[in-house]
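Handoff note, outgoing to incoming analyst
You'll be picking up this chain. Sequence as last confirmed:
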Amino acid sequence: MAINITDHASKQIQNMMKEESDGAYLRFGVKGGGCSGLSYSLGFEYEINEELDTTKEINGIPVVLNNQDIPIIEGTTIDFKQNMMGGGFSIDNPNAIVSCGCGSSFRTKDKAGAPAAIVRKIAEAISCFSYYLYLSIVSILKHAS
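Most recent structure output, in case you need it:
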């Protein structure tokens, strides 16, 4: 079994699937992006490519996984947690060696994500730095006059 779905997550997904058409699968996988290089992808799918995908029933949920994603997500647990601010899915991936603060992106030992995503993050960091530098200069000039 590539992934695990807790009872709480299974109940939430089953409730969500009631609003979907018959034949829906839960697709779980990864895509390039996010601060750490890879992001999780979670949604409903109706079209299955038997050459590229694997289907399984996990805790009562029909699941489809892209074969290329399986080594990256092997052993991952999907849970649903409820708190005073609402609820949401949490993903615990034992293969992730780096995760961002919000937990939506990660990197594994062998997969770091698309280089374009890293370049974009560097550009964003430079842009933020430039903006804060600008604000600092404006503040210094205001106090100097």
